[in-house]
Each structure stands twice: as C-alpha cells, then as structure tokens.
C-alpha cells in the first residue's frame, strides 16, 4: 500500500448501531449489549459456522496427537469444504491458537476455542471497522485496546459459544439475556437523594 492510504472499513449491515455506539463513546455495557445482539443475528443470518463440529473434532484429535502434522492440512480441507466461509476461517485461527498454546490433552477444545472464536468475530465485525476512528479520537493504541478489552469483558463469550455449539447452523441462536438493574420509580429516587 502506498503511503497515506486509508482503508475505510464500513460496518456491515446489522453492525452499524454497535459501531456507532463504540465510536460515540457509549459505555462498554451498552456497546457489549448491542454487540451481543448483533453477533447472534449475524450468526443466524450467516447460517452459523459451516464445519464447526468437524473443525472441533479435528482440533480434539490434534490435541490428543500433538506430534501429528496433519492439523493444518485437515483444517484447510474443512475451510475449503465450507467454501472458504469467513466464520470457518476465523474458527480455524482460534483452533490453531489454542493448539499452539500447548494445552493439556485432557482439556475439551470447545470450552476454550468457542469463546476465542466469538471474540475474533467481534474483532472482525465490530472493532476492525472502528479501529482507525477510535485511534484518531483516543490518540493512542493503548487507549483503543483498553476500550476493546472493556467491551469484550462484558460480552458473554462463553454463553454465546455454548449456544453456537447447541445450534451450529445458527437457526435457534438468540442473544443471552442480560441482567439489567430494574428501573426505580422516581419517588424512590427522590427519597434517597442525594445518596446514590
């Protein structure tokens, strides 16, 4: 790329509200709640993650036989069979990162891979389109990373991953319920005022 080129990554349909909240400096809770809805909607519309079960089985086999070099070829074959689907490629990357961390063979890959996969999806759909603007607004990479980590900490990655495991085609996938504080009546607020 030539110097001073700017790549504009427009948010994908269904993600504009999440990206807009992120760029406007909304609270991490608000961004995470909207991003949770968007990720589940995206997985439903994209028919989940093609090859999910097959990829997790291949990852489990590679975990039991770490000397084998067939992981990359088998993972590439699964991605090709899925038509190069973006979600399948991100799942392959999450499985590869998990296997490179030298985990214990007794671990279940889906418990560790799926939350990382959901985080990678969020990075792809939410953070990537907003990263340049966030960097300009916050004036530093460390501040951008802090915002991303704050949002990721509030997204129920494990619950979304478990739901995706139950619904690999995405058809029954729904955003997990969030626990919001109940709105208090004005009278109660005024009685307690100025105490929080």
Number of strands: 0
Number of helices: 9
Overall residue-averaged pLDDT value: 85
Instruction: Work out the count of structural domains.
Output: 1
The whole-angstrom Rg is 20 Å
Broad structural category: mainly alpha
| Terminal CA distance | 53 Å
Uncertain ranges: 1-6
Q: What percent of the residues sit in helical stretches (DSSP H or I)?
A: 55-70%
Describe the global form. Answer: elongated
H and E string: HHHHHHHHH
Largest sheet descriptor: none
Strand content: under 5%
Topology diagram in text:
Blueprint: H1 16-23, H2 28-45, H3 52-64, H4 71-81, H5 86-100, H6 109-138, H7 141-154, H8 157-166, H9 186-192
Task: Characterise the protein shown here.
The chain is mostly helical and 196 residues long. The chain has one domain (16-166). Helices cover 64% and strands 0% of the residues. α1 (16-23) packs antiparallel against α2 and α6 (109-138) crosses α8. Mean pLDDT is 85; it is low at 1-6.
């Amino acid at each position: 790329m030539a110097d001073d080129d700017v790549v504009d990554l427009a948010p994908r349909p269904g993600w504009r509200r999440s990206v807009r909240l992120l760029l406007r400096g909304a609270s991490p809770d608000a961004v995470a709640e909207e991003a949770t809805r968007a990720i589940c909607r995206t997985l439903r519309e994209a028919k989940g993650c093609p090859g999910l079960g097959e990829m997790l089985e291949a990852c489990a086999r590679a975990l039991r036989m770490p000397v084998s070099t067939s992981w990359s070829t088998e993972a590439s074959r699964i991605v090709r069979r899925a038509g190069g689907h973006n979600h399948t490629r991100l799942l392959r990357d999450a499985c590869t990162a998990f296997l490179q961390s030298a985990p214990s063979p007794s671990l279940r890959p889906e418990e560790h891979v799926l939350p990382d996969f959901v985080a990678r999806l969020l990075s792809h759909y939410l953070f990537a389109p907003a990263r340049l603007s966030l960097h300009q607004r916050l004036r530093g990479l460390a501040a951008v990373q802090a915002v991303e980590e704050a949002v990721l900490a509030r997204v129920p990655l494990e619950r979304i991953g478990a739901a995706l495991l139950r619904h690999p085609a995405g058809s029954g996938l729904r955003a997990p319920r969030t626990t919001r504080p109940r709105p208090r009546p004005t009278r109660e607020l005024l009685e307690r005022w100025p105490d929080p």
